[in-house]
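dumping this here so i dont lose it
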């Protein structure tokens, strides 16, 4: 009788753990996007070796916005780990970087990107963002492998895995 009780208790724990893993698996592949940031390209917003979390469903009802931080499959290497960058250029926009400042559609006023570490050195563009794609930059403009340097300059909408909302390790904080 004691042996049956122990076996039932062990089976109960095994079932609980299996269900927890199944729920985590489903959530991670349908609702939540998580990544390890392995480069300094988003510093000081997201530090190297940080873990971030976002929502895969963030763009179900609306399109990505300028300044959203996204997790995506890099256009030049679809076998690579996902990248984390900030959306700067939206579909059908002209993006140009002049003396380190970002200008959209020939505006006289540069983007307010006061969150960046330092302005990019140099001039880039103009880049004409195609329909259904985005131009992305890292917040650490001089230490980022981003749209300026890729062969395929733009992130297609279907490559976006989610919007990053939370840095949860080593120092938890929301990114909005």
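and the seq i came up w/
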């Amino acid at each position: 009788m004691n042996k049956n009780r122990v076996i039932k208790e062990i089976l109960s724990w095994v079932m609980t753990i299996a269900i927890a893993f199944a729920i985590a698996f489903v959530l991670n592949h349908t609702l939540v996007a998580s990544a390890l940031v392995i480069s300094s390209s988003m510093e000081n917003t997201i530090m190297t070796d940080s873990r971030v979390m976002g929502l895969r469903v963030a763009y179900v009802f609306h399109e990505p916005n300028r300044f959203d931080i996204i997790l995506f499959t890099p256009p030049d290497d679809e076998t690579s780990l996902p990248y984390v960058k900030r959306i700067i250029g939206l579909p059908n926009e002209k993006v140009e970087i002049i003396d380190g400042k970002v200008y959209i559609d020939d505006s006289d006023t540069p983007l307010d990107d006061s969150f960046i570490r330092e302005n990019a050195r140099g001039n880039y563009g103009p880049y004409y963002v195609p329909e259904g794609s985005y131009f992305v930059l890292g917040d650490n403009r001089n230490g980022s492998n981003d749209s300026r340097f890729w062969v395929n300059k733009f992130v297609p909408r279907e490559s976006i895995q989610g919007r990053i909302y939370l840095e949860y390790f080593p120092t938890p904080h929301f990114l909005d």
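The mean pLDDT is 90.
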